[in-house]
Description:
It is built from 17 helices and 13 strands. It is an alpha/beta fold.
Amino acid sequence: MSMLTRRRLLSRAALSATAGATGCDAGTDPDTDPTGGSGGNLRFPTGFGWGAATSAYQIEGAAKEDGRGESVWDTFSRTPGRTRNGDTGDVAADHYHRYADDLDLMRDLGLRSYRFSISWPRIQPDGTGTPNQRGLDFYRRLVDGLHERGISPMATLFHWDLPQTLQDAGGWENRDTAYRFAEYAEAVFHGLGDRIPAWLTINEPKTVVQNGYLYGHHAPGFQDPQAAYLVAHHLQLAHGLAVRALRATGSAARIGPALNLHPCYPADDSAEAARASRLYDGYENRLYLDSILKGSYPADVLADLGADSRIARGIVDGDLEIISSPVDLLAVQYYTPYYVTPTGGTVTRWPTSQADWQQIYPNGMYDILTRVTRDYGPLPLTVTENGLPQADTLSADGTVDDTGRIDFLREHMAAAHRAVSDGVPLESYHVWSLLDNFEWAEGYDQRWGLVYVDYPTQRRVLKRSAHWYREVIRANGL
Length: 478
Ligand code: GCO
Protein backbone atom coordinates (compact mmCIF):
# COMPACT_ATOMS: atom_id res chain seq x y z
CA MET A 1 0.00 0.00 0.00
CA SER A 2 2.01 2.87 -1.29
CA MET A 3 -0.31 5.59 -0.10
CA LEU A 4 0.00 5.20 3.62
CA THR A 5 2.42 7.87 4.60
CA ARG A 6 1.27 10.61 2.31
CA ARG A 7 -0.48 13.69 3.58
CA ARG A 8 -2.58 15.29 1.10
CA LEU A 9 -1.97 17.10 -3.56
CA LEU A 10 -0.21 19.12 -11.39
CA SER A 11 2.25 19.16 -14.24
CA ARG A 12 2.37 21.14 -17.33
CA ALA A 13 1.37 17.95 -19.19
CA ALA A 14 -1.72 17.32 -17.12
CA LEU A 15 -2.76 20.92 -17.29
CA SER A 16 -2.41 21.23 -21.00
CA ALA A 17 -4.36 17.99 -21.35
CA THR A 18 -7.14 19.56 -19.33
CA ALA A 19 -6.95 22.77 -21.26
CA GLY A 20 -7.15 20.93 -24.55
CA ALA A 21 -10.13 18.89 -23.45
CA THR A 22 -12.13 21.71 -22.00
CA GLY A 23 -11.25 24.68 -24.11
CA CYS A 24 -9.47 26.44 -21.26
CA ASP A 25 -8.27 29.89 -22.23
CA ALA A 26 -4.95 29.27 -23.91
CA GLY A 27 -3.88 32.79 -23.03
CA THR A 28 -3.04 31.96 -19.41
CA ASP A 29 -0.41 29.64 -18.04
CA PRO A 30 -1.51 28.00 -14.78
CA ASP A 31 2.12 27.21 -14.10
CA THR A 32 2.88 30.84 -13.48
CA ASP A 33 -0.55 32.29 -12.80
CA PRO A 34 -2.37 30.19 -10.19
CA THR A 35 -5.63 32.00 -10.88
CA GLY A 36 -5.62 30.79 -14.46
CA GLY A 37 -6.51 34.37 -15.38
CA SER A 38 -9.51 36.18 -13.95
CA GLY A 39 -11.05 39.24 -15.46
CA GLY A 40 -13.65 41.60 -13.99
CA ASN A 41 -17.37 41.90 -14.73
CA LEU A 42 -18.23 38.22 -14.49
CA ARG A 43 -21.97 37.50 -14.30
CA PHE A 44 -23.26 34.14 -13.14
CA PRO A 45 -26.38 32.42 -14.54
CA THR A 46 -29.69 33.88 -13.37
CA GLY A 47 -30.80 32.28 -10.11
CA PHE A 48 -27.30 31.11 -9.19
CA GLY A 49 -27.34 29.77 -5.63
CA TRP A 50 -24.95 31.89 -3.64
CA GLY A 51 -24.58 30.33 -0.24
CA ALA A 52 -22.56 29.51 2.82
CA ALA A 53 -21.96 26.24 4.66
CA THR A 54 -21.62 24.99 8.22
CA SER A 55 -21.86 21.69 10.07
CA ALA A 56 -23.64 20.73 13.27
CA TYR A 57 -20.79 19.81 15.60
CA GLN A 58 -18.71 22.77 14.44
CA ILE A 59 -21.28 25.45 15.30
CA GLU A 60 -24.16 24.22 17.43
CA GLY A 61 -22.77 23.68 20.92
CA ALA A 62 -25.58 22.64 23.32
CA ALA A 63 -23.86 19.30 23.55
CA LYS A 64 -26.06 17.98 26.32
CA GLU A 65 -29.40 19.58 25.53
CA ASP A 66 -32.78 18.35 24.44
CA GLY A 67 -31.82 14.72 24.57
CA ARG A 68 -28.74 14.87 22.34
CA GLY A 69 -26.55 11.79 22.66
CA GLU A 70 -22.76 11.63 22.53
CA SER A 71 -20.88 11.45 19.27
CA VAL A 72 -17.39 10.29 18.42
CA TRP A 73 -16.36 13.94 18.28
CA ASP A 74 -17.47 14.49 21.88
CA THR A 75 -15.33 11.58 22.94
CA PHE A 76 -12.37 12.52 20.76
CA SER A 77 -12.27 16.21 21.60
CA ARG A 78 -12.57 15.54 25.31
CA THR A 79 -9.60 13.18 25.20
CA PRO A 80 -6.49 15.05 26.32
CA GLY A 81 -4.04 15.79 23.52
CA ARG A 82 -6.44 15.23 20.64
CA THR A 83 -7.35 18.81 19.78
CA ARG A 84 -5.44 22.08 19.91
CA ASN A 85 -5.74 23.65 23.35
CA GLY A 86 -8.08 20.79 24.31
CA ASP A 87 -10.89 22.61 22.49
CA THR A 88 -14.26 20.87 22.16
CA GLY A 89 -17.57 21.59 20.41
CA ASP A 90 -19.45 21.76 23.72
CA VAL A 91 -20.33 25.42 23.15
CA ALA A 92 -18.80 26.16 19.72
CA ALA A 93 -20.60 29.16 18.15
CA ASP A 94 -23.65 28.48 20.34
CA HIS A 95 -25.74 28.34 17.18
CA TYR A 96 -28.28 26.01 18.82
CA HIS A 97 -29.41 28.94 20.97
CA ARG A 98 -28.62 31.75 18.52
CA TYR A 99 -29.94 30.22 15.33
CA ALA A 100 -32.64 32.92 14.92
CA ASP A 101 -30.01 35.68 14.99
CA ASP A 102 -27.83 33.67 12.64
CA LEU A 103 -30.77 33.33 10.26
CA ASP A 104 -31.09 37.12 10.29
CA LEU A 105 -27.40 37.40 9.48
CA MET A 106 -27.89 35.09 6.51
CA ARG A 107 -30.79 37.22 5.30
CA ASP A 108 -28.72 40.39 5.72
CA LEU A 109 -25.98 38.83 3.61
CA GLY A 110 -28.55 38.02 0.95
CA LEU A 111 -27.78 34.29 0.94
CA ARG A 112 -29.89 32.23 -1.42
CA SER A 113 -28.76 28.85 -0.13
CA TYR A 114 -27.63 27.59 3.26
CA ARG A 115 -25.92 24.26 3.66
CA PHE A 116 -25.92 22.85 7.18
CA SER A 117 -25.80 19.39 8.69
CA ILE A 118 -28.13 17.44 10.91
CA SER A 119 -26.64 15.96 14.02
CA TRP A 120 -27.33 12.23 14.09
CA PRO A 121 -27.04 12.06 17.92
CA ARG A 122 -29.70 14.77 18.27
CA ILE A 123 -32.10 12.66 16.20
CA GLN A 124 -31.07 9.24 17.53
CA PRO A 125 -29.07 9.67 20.73
CA ASP A 126 -27.95 6.04 20.60
CA GLY A 127 -27.79 5.83 16.84
CA THR A 128 -30.91 3.75 16.50
CA GLY A 129 -34.63 3.64 17.26
CA THR A 130 -37.43 6.14 17.62
CA PRO A 131 -36.34 9.65 16.65
CA ASN A 132 -35.99 12.30 19.33
CA GLN A 133 -38.72 14.83 18.55
CA ARG A 134 -36.85 17.68 20.23
CA GLY A 135 -33.93 17.11 17.90
CA LEU A 136 -36.17 17.12 14.84
CA ASP A 137 -37.93 20.23 16.14
CA PHE A 138 -34.69 22.21 16.25
CA TYR A 139 -34.06 21.57 12.57
CA ARG A 140 -37.68 22.25 11.72
CA ARG A 141 -37.41 25.68 13.33
CA LEU A 142 -34.16 26.30 11.49
CA VAL A 143 -35.55 25.24 8.13
CA ASP A 144 -38.79 27.16 8.57
CA GLY A 145 -36.69 30.21 9.42
CA LEU A 146 -34.73 29.75 6.20
CA HIS A 147 -37.90 29.54 4.12
CA GLU A 148 -39.32 32.63 5.84
CA ARG A 149 -36.20 34.51 4.75
CA GLY A 150 -36.22 33.20 1.19
CA ILE A 151 -33.13 31.00 1.69
CA SER A 152 -33.08 27.49 0.27
CA PRO A 153 -32.01 24.77 2.73
CA MET A 154 -29.47 22.13 1.76
CA ALA A 155 -29.05 19.52 4.49
CA THR A 156 -26.14 17.14 5.01
CA LEU A 157 -27.16 13.95 6.78
CA PHE A 158 -23.73 13.06 8.16
CA HIS A 159 -20.92 15.46 8.87
CA TRP A 160 -18.79 13.12 10.99
CA ASP A 161 -20.70 13.11 14.30
CA LEU A 162 -21.35 9.37 14.53
CA PRO A 163 -23.25 8.39 17.69
CA GLN A 164 -20.72 7.00 20.16
CA THR A 165 -22.90 3.96 20.80
CA LEU A 166 -22.46 2.95 17.19
CA GLN A 167 -18.72 3.52 17.43
CA ASP A 168 -18.68 1.23 20.43
CA ALA A 169 -20.28 -1.40 18.19
CA GLY A 170 -17.49 -1.06 15.64
CA GLY A 171 -18.36 2.23 13.96
CA TRP A 172 -17.87 2.40 10.20
CA GLU A 173 -15.79 -0.79 10.28
CA ASN A 174 -19.03 -2.52 11.04
CA ARG A 175 -21.18 -3.03 7.94
CA ASP A 176 -24.27 -2.74 10.10
CA THR A 177 -23.54 0.97 10.66
CA ALA A 178 -24.45 1.62 7.01
CA TYR A 179 -27.88 0.11 7.65
CA ARG A 180 -28.28 2.13 10.87
CA PHE A 181 -27.46 5.23 8.81
CA ALA A 182 -30.20 4.36 6.30
CA GLU A 183 -32.72 4.10 9.15
CA TYR A 184 -31.60 7.42 10.56
CA ALA A 185 -31.88 8.99 7.09
CA GLU A 186 -35.39 7.60 6.76
CA ALA A 187 -36.37 9.10 10.11
CA VAL A 188 -35.02 12.48 9.01
CA PHE A 189 -36.78 12.27 5.63
CA HIS A 190 -40.06 11.55 7.41
CA GLY A 191 -39.52 14.30 9.97
CA LEU A 192 -38.23 17.08 7.72
CA GLY A 193 -38.54 15.88 4.16
CA ASP A 194 -41.51 18.05 3.30
CA ARG A 195 -39.39 21.19 3.63
CA ILE A 196 -35.90 20.35 2.37
CA PRO A 197 -35.39 20.39 -1.41
CA ALA A 198 -31.77 19.16 -1.44
CA TRP A 199 -29.97 16.53 0.61
CA LEU A 200 -26.34 15.56 0.85
CA THR A 201 -25.59 12.12 2.24
CA ILE A 202 -22.08 11.77 3.69
CA ASN A 203 -19.73 14.72 3.99
CA GLU A 204 -16.26 13.91 2.69
CA PRO A 205 -16.07 10.16 3.24
CA LYS A 206 -12.39 10.44 2.33
CA THR A 207 -11.64 12.63 5.32
CA VAL A 208 -13.12 10.05 7.68
CA VAL A 209 -11.01 7.41 5.93
CA GLN A 210 -7.76 9.36 5.93
CA ASN A 211 -7.93 11.58 8.98
CA GLY A 212 -10.02 9.27 11.14
CA TYR A 213 -8.48 5.89 10.26
CA LEU A 214 -5.11 6.43 8.50
CA TYR A 215 -3.50 9.35 10.29
CA GLY A 216 -5.63 9.30 13.42
CA HIS A 217 -5.93 13.01 13.90
CA HIS A 218 -9.70 13.04 13.59
CA ALA A 219 -12.25 10.92 15.47
CA PRO A 220 -12.18 8.06 16.06
CA GLY A 221 -8.41 8.52 15.99
CA PHE A 222 -7.16 5.24 14.55
CA GLN A 223 -4.11 4.47 12.43
CA ASP A 224 -5.20 1.31 10.72
CA PRO A 225 -4.95 1.21 6.90
CA GLN A 226 -6.84 -2.04 6.59
CA ALA A 227 -9.75 -0.66 8.58
CA ALA A 228 -9.55 2.66 6.73
CA TYR A 229 -10.49 1.32 3.30
CA LEU A 230 -13.18 -0.98 4.65
CA VAL A 231 -14.61 2.16 6.21
CA ALA A 232 -14.44 3.82 2.77
CA HIS A 233 -16.66 1.05 1.45
CA HIS A 234 -19.16 1.13 4.29
CA LEU A 235 -19.49 4.92 4.11
CA GLN A 236 -20.32 4.64 0.43
CA LEU A 237 -22.74 1.80 1.08
CA ALA A 238 -24.43 4.07 3.61
CA HIS A 239 -24.60 6.80 0.98
CA GLY A 240 -26.32 4.48 -1.52
CA LEU A 241 -28.76 3.13 1.04
CA ALA A 242 -29.75 6.68 2.01
CA VAL A 243 -30.34 7.59 -1.65
CA ARG A 244 -32.65 4.60 -1.91
CA ALA A 245 -34.38 5.51 1.36
CA LEU A 246 -35.19 8.97 0.00
CA ARG A 247 -36.59 7.54 -3.25
CA ALA A 248 -38.72 5.11 -1.22
CA THR A 249 -40.50 8.04 0.43
CA GLY A 250 -41.67 9.20 -3.01
CA SER A 251 -40.01 12.57 -2.38
CA ALA A 252 -39.16 14.84 -5.30
CA ALA A 253 -36.23 16.27 -3.34
CA ARG A 254 -32.74 15.94 -4.79
CA ILE A 255 -29.87 14.04 -3.22
CA GLY A 256 -26.18 13.48 -3.81
CA PRO A 257 -22.79 12.95 -2.16
CA ALA A 258 -20.49 15.70 -0.86
CA LEU A 259 -16.93 14.91 -1.94
CA ASN A 260 -13.73 16.81 -1.29
CA LEU A 261 -11.91 16.50 -4.58
CA HIS A 262 -8.29 17.30 -5.21
CA PRO A 263 -6.76 17.83 -8.62
CA CYS A 264 -3.58 15.74 -8.67
CA TYR A 265 -0.72 16.77 -10.93
CA PRO A 266 2.67 15.14 -11.46
CA ALA A 267 5.35 17.19 -9.69
CA ASP A 268 7.75 16.80 -12.62
CA ASP A 269 7.78 15.66 -16.24
CA SER A 270 8.85 12.07 -15.58
CA ALA A 271 6.80 9.02 -16.49
CA GLU A 272 7.15 7.89 -12.86
CA ALA A 273 5.58 11.08 -11.58
CA ALA A 274 2.74 10.72 -14.09
CA ARG A 275 2.13 7.16 -12.89
CA ALA A 276 2.31 8.07 -9.21
CA SER A 277 0.00 11.02 -9.75
CA ARG A 278 -2.55 8.79 -11.46
CA LEU A 279 -2.63 6.40 -8.52
CA TYR A 280 -2.76 9.30 -6.09
CA ASP A 281 -5.79 10.57 -8.01
CA GLY A 282 -7.30 7.13 -7.54
CA TYR A 283 -7.07 7.36 -3.77
CA GLU A 284 -8.13 11.00 -3.61
CA ASN A 285 -10.89 11.12 -6.19
CA ARG A 286 -11.77 8.01 -8.21
CA LEU A 287 -12.21 5.78 -5.15
CA TYR A 288 -15.37 7.79 -4.47
CA LEU A 289 -16.34 9.14 -7.91
CA ASP A 290 -16.09 5.89 -9.90
CA SER A 291 -18.05 3.88 -7.37
CA ILE A 292 -20.86 6.37 -6.86
CA LEU A 293 -21.13 7.61 -10.43
CA LYS A 294 -19.98 4.59 -12.46
CA GLY A 295 -20.67 1.62 -10.22
CA SER A 296 -17.14 0.25 -9.92
CA TYR A 297 -14.09 0.86 -7.77
CA PRO A 298 -10.98 1.92 -9.69
CA ALA A 299 -8.98 -1.18 -10.59
CA ASP A 300 -5.61 0.47 -9.92
CA VAL A 301 -6.56 1.37 -6.37
CA LEU A 302 -8.04 -2.04 -5.62
CA ALA A 303 -4.90 -3.69 -7.02
CA ASP A 304 -2.71 -1.41 -4.88
CA LEU A 305 -4.73 -2.30 -1.79
CA GLY A 306 -4.48 -5.99 -2.57
CA ALA A 307 -6.88 -8.90 -3.01
CA ASP A 308 -6.49 -9.77 0.68
CA SER A 309 -7.32 -6.34 1.96
CA ARG A 310 -10.33 -5.91 4.19
CA ILE A 311 -12.06 -3.76 1.60
CA ALA A 312 -11.58 -6.37 -1.12
CA ARG A 313 -13.02 -9.00 1.19
CA GLY A 314 -15.77 -6.67 2.45
CA ILE A 315 -17.43 -5.94 -0.89
CA VAL A 316 -20.57 -8.03 -1.13
CA ASP A 317 -22.33 -8.79 -4.42
CA GLY A 318 -24.82 -6.02 -5.15
CA ASP A 319 -23.03 -3.39 -3.04
CA LEU A 320 -21.81 -1.41 -6.02
CA GLU A 321 -25.35 -1.32 -7.41
CA ILE A 322 -26.53 0.23 -4.18
CA ILE A 323 -23.60 2.64 -4.06
CA SER A 324 -24.23 3.78 -7.63
CA SER A 325 -27.94 4.38 -7.16
CA PRO A 326 -28.62 7.38 -9.42
CA VAL A 327 -28.06 10.76 -7.75
CA ASP A 328 -29.40 14.17 -8.72
CA LEU A 329 -26.37 16.28 -8.02
CA LEU A 330 -22.72 16.13 -7.03
CA ALA A 331 -21.44 18.41 -4.29
CA VAL A 332 -17.80 19.38 -4.80
CA GLN A 333 -15.61 20.73 -2.01
CA TYR A 334 -12.37 22.23 -3.24
CA TYR A 335 -9.51 23.45 -1.12
CA THR A 336 -6.14 22.43 -2.56
CA PRO A 337 -4.29 20.65 -5.36
CA TYR A 338 -1.66 17.96 -4.84
CA TYR A 339 1.65 17.72 -6.72
CA VAL A 340 2.82 14.14 -6.73
CA THR A 341 6.47 13.08 -6.91
CA PRO A 342 7.77 9.96 -8.71
CA THR A 343 7.81 8.09 -5.41
CA GLY A 344 4.24 8.98 -4.50
CA GLY A 345 5.03 11.78 -2.06
CA THR A 346 3.81 15.32 -2.45
CA VAL A 347 5.44 18.71 -2.74
CA THR A 348 4.20 22.19 -2.07
CA ARG A 349 4.24 24.50 -5.02
CA TRP A 350 2.08 27.46 -4.09
CA PRO A 351 1.78 29.60 -0.97
CA THR A 352 -0.26 27.97 1.77
CA SER A 353 -2.96 29.42 3.98
CA GLN A 354 -2.90 29.22 7.77
CA ALA A 355 -3.68 25.53 7.17
CA ASP A 356 -0.34 24.10 6.05
CA TRP A 357 -2.08 21.46 3.90
CA GLN A 358 -3.83 24.10 1.78
CA GLN A 359 -2.00 25.48 -1.26
CA ILE A 360 -3.77 28.44 -2.74
CA TYR A 361 -4.40 27.46 -6.35
CA PRO A 362 -7.66 28.87 -7.75
CA ASN A 363 -7.12 27.26 -11.16
CA GLY A 364 -7.59 23.91 -9.36
CA MET A 365 -11.26 24.85 -8.99
CA TYR A 366 -11.55 25.15 -12.76
CA ASP A 367 -9.68 21.90 -13.30
CA ILE A 368 -11.74 19.85 -10.87
CA LEU A 369 -15.12 21.18 -12.05
CA THR A 370 -14.30 20.64 -15.72
CA ARG A 371 -12.82 17.23 -15.00
CA VAL A 372 -15.85 15.83 -13.17
CA THR A 373 -18.11 17.12 -15.91
CA ARG A 374 -15.91 15.57 -18.59
CA ASP A 375 -15.44 12.22 -16.84
CA TYR A 376 -18.74 11.79 -15.00
CA GLY A 377 -21.24 14.29 -16.41
CA PRO A 378 -23.43 15.76 -17.34
CA LEU A 379 -24.52 16.05 -13.72
CA PRO A 380 -25.66 19.17 -11.88
CA LEU A 381 -22.85 20.40 -9.65
CA THR A 382 -22.81 22.48 -6.51
CA VAL A 383 -19.71 23.74 -4.77
CA THR A 384 -20.56 23.09 -1.14
CA GLU A 385 -17.25 24.19 0.40
CA ASN A 386 -14.46 26.55 -0.57
CA GLY A 387 -12.63 28.94 1.69
CA LEU A 388 -9.53 29.47 3.79
CA PRO A 389 -8.56 29.99 7.40
CA GLN A 390 -6.89 33.13 8.68
CA ALA A 391 -5.89 34.42 12.11
CA ASP A 392 -8.54 37.15 11.83
CA THR A 393 -8.68 39.72 14.63
CA LEU A 394 -11.34 42.12 15.78
CA SER A 395 -9.87 45.62 15.71
CA ALA A 396 -10.59 48.37 18.22
CA ASP A 397 -13.02 50.04 15.81
CA GLY A 398 -15.06 46.84 15.69
CA THR A 399 -14.09 45.70 12.18
CA VAL A 400 -12.39 42.58 10.89
CA ASP A 401 -10.19 43.23 7.86
CA ASP A 402 -9.82 39.88 6.06
CA THR A 403 -8.70 41.15 2.68
CA GLY A 404 -6.86 37.89 2.04
CA ARG A 405 -10.15 36.01 2.15
CA ILE A 406 -11.70 38.40 -0.37
CA ASP A 407 -8.80 37.80 -2.77
CA PHE A 408 -9.09 34.04 -2.29
CA LEU A 409 -12.84 33.95 -2.85
CA ARG A 410 -12.76 36.31 -5.83
CA GLU A 411 -10.15 34.19 -7.62
CA HIS A 412 -11.90 30.90 -6.88
CA MET A 413 -15.26 32.30 -7.96
CA ALA A 414 -13.67 33.59 -11.17
CA ALA A 415 -12.27 30.10 -11.82
CA ALA A 416 -15.75 28.63 -11.21
CA HIS A 417 -17.15 31.20 -13.63
CA ARG A 418 -14.68 30.11 -16.32
CA ALA A 419 -15.86 26.55 -15.79
CA VAL A 420 -19.49 27.63 -16.19
CA SER A 421 -18.57 29.52 -19.37
CA ASP A 422 -17.02 26.31 -20.66
CA GLY A 423 -20.25 24.39 -20.10
CA VAL A 424 -20.00 23.06 -16.53
CA PRO A 425 -23.53 22.81 -15.05
CA LEU A 426 -22.68 24.51 -11.77
CA GLU A 427 -25.77 25.64 -9.89
CA SER A 428 -24.51 27.07 -6.66
CA TYR A 429 -21.46 27.94 -4.61
CA HIS A 430 -21.14 27.88 -0.82
CA VAL A 431 -18.39 29.58 1.09
CA TRP A 432 -16.89 27.57 3.91
CA SER A 433 -17.91 28.91 6.29
CA LEU A 434 -20.73 31.17 7.40
CA LEU A 435 -19.29 31.53 10.89
CA ASP A 436 -15.96 31.01 12.58
CA ASN A 437 -16.27 27.60 14.21
CA PHE A 438 -14.69 24.51 15.73
CA GLU A 439 -12.14 23.42 13.12
CA TRP A 440 -11.86 19.82 14.30
CA ALA A 441 -8.37 18.97 15.59
CA GLU A 442 -7.36 22.62 15.11
CA GLY A 443 -9.96 23.76 17.63
CA TYR A 444 -10.77 27.46 17.45
CA ASP A 445 -7.37 28.69 16.23
CA GLN A 446 -8.27 28.72 12.56
CA ARG A 447 -11.03 31.14 11.63
CA TRP A 448 -12.83 30.15 8.42
CA GLY A 449 -15.94 32.35 8.68
CA LEU A 450 -17.39 35.25 6.74
CA VAL A 451 -18.67 36.22 10.14
CA TYR A 452 -16.33 36.66 13.07
CA VAL A 453 -17.36 35.01 16.31
CA ASP A 454 -16.06 36.62 19.49
CA TYR A 455 -16.13 33.41 21.49
CA PRO A 456 -16.13 34.91 25.03
CA THR A 457 -19.29 36.93 24.25
CA GLN A 458 -20.54 34.98 21.20
CA ARG A 459 -20.97 38.34 19.47
CA ARG A 460 -21.08 38.10 15.67
CA VAL A 461 -19.25 40.69 13.52
CA LEU A 462 -19.46 40.70 9.74
CA LYS A 463 -15.92 40.55 8.37
CA ARG A 464 -14.95 42.69 5.42
CA SER A 465 -15.38 39.56 3.25
CA ALA A 466 -19.01 39.28 4.35
CA HIS A 467 -19.72 42.84 3.20
CA TRP A 468 -17.91 42.08 -0.05
CA TYR A 469 -19.85 38.80 -0.55
CA ARG A 470 -23.16 40.63 -0.06
CA GLU A 471 -22.26 42.81 -3.05
CA VAL A 472 -21.25 39.77 -5.11
CA ILE A 473 -24.63 38.21 -4.42
CA ARG A 474 -26.47 41.44 -5.17
CA ALA A 475 -24.62 41.81 -8.51
CA ASN A 476 -24.81 38.06 -9.20
CA GLY A 477 -21.15 38.15 -10.03
CA LEU A 478 -17.79 39.79 -9.71
C1 GCO B 1 -14.01 19.45 5.77
C2 GCO B 1 -15.28 19.71 6.42
C3 GCO B 1 -15.36 21.03 7.11
C4 GCO B 1 -14.04 21.69 7.44
C5 GCO B 1 -13.52 22.51 6.29
C6 GCO B 1 -12.20 23.23 6.61
O1 GCO B 1 -14.04 19.55 4.58
O2 GCO B 1 -13.01 19.16 6.39
O3 GCO B 1 -16.38 19.51 5.58
O4 GCO B 1 -16.00 20.59 8.24
O5 GCO B 1 -14.19 22.51 8.53
O6 GCO B 1 -13.30 21.70 5.18
O7 GCO B 1 -11.20 22.29 6.87
